[in-house]
Amino acid sequence: MPVTDAQHDLDNLTLTIVAEFAAPVERVWQIYADPRQLEKVWGPPTYPATVVDHDLRPGGRVNYFMTGPEGDKHAGYWLVTAVDEPTSFAFEDGFADLDFTPNPSLPVSQNVYSFAAHGGGTRATYVGTYESAEALQQVLAMGIVEGASLAINQIDALLAS
Length: 161
Description:
The protein has helices spanning 25-33, 35-38, 133-141, 144-153, 155-160, and strands at 3-9, 14-21, 49-54, 61-67, 73-84, 88-96, 109-118, 121-130. With 161 residues, the protein is an alpha+beta fold. Strand 1 and strand 2 (14-21) form a beta hairpin. It is built from five helices and eight strands.
């Protein structure tokens, strides 16, 4: 299992997940840079993602929806704020209506995904920062740690294919 640690910090409003992959940084970067690869690992296995728009440049936007086991759809978006290919990118991540209009009633997080060479592979650090402890607690109650860990753990199979 690639996820080696998952910690939340209500004082600093952060959720940090660390994972390690047996692949070079550039290969892990490709997963996020390629919408067809991203949709194989974004969302838990029972909620596969469909990436509709993908612009991984500062100012770009990624729109996606996940489809649940009953056919239910849940949309989200990224607003890309920084890119340092292939070692990191930052984005605002939010929930959306099915037309990708941001849903202001659900939390938004500021995220930094970083990739560093480690032990012949890559250590990925995923940090999400929330506006309030209540927002962080809300996504924790929604199962974000479990869902994100299941999603990230799919990366190994994609790297092996």
